[in-house]
Write a structure and sequence with these properties.
globular, about 120 residues, 2 strands, mainly alpha, two-stranded antiparallel ribbon, about 50% helix
């Protein structure tokens, strides 16, 4: 079985903050805290640190993201971009390859009648 957001990606559905809860509850709680509070004093930027085989590098969530501070006004955009990165952008090549193989066996239109719970 895969994680719920995987099935949502297969169906072309938007992934939400709530989807994060079942995958990484600590990360979900952190993002939820940001959403419910003023994150200005945290000095968060529109970027994420990624680890690749022991090497850490920074990924901008949007152009010049490392120069943009997360504020109370833009925190929803930040959370949406974090979720987009964690679940979609960083695995897009792999997901495309999976879907290419999957659709050779089953037409994608045939599974669109299901929701992510039924597809699981």
């Amino acid at each position: 079985f895969f994680i719920r957001p995987f099935y949502k990606m297969m169906l072309g559905k938007q992934i939400s903050l709530k989807d994060m809860e079942s995958v990484d509850s600590e990360y979900y709680n952190s993002l939820k805290w940001i959403l419910e509070n003023d994150p200005t004093e945290l000095d968060l930027r529109f970027c994420i640190d990624e680890d690749n085989f022991g090497q850490t590098y920074q990924v901008d969530l949007k152009p010049s993201g490392s120069d943009m501070v997360v504020t109370n006004d833009n925190k929803k955009e930040y959370i949406d971009l974090v979720i987009q990165w964690r679940f979609v952008n960083r695995v897009q090549k792999q997901m495309n390859a999976f879907l290419e193989g999957f659709t050779e066996l089953i037409q994608i239109d045939l599974i669109k009648i299901f929701d992510e719970n039924e597809l699981e």
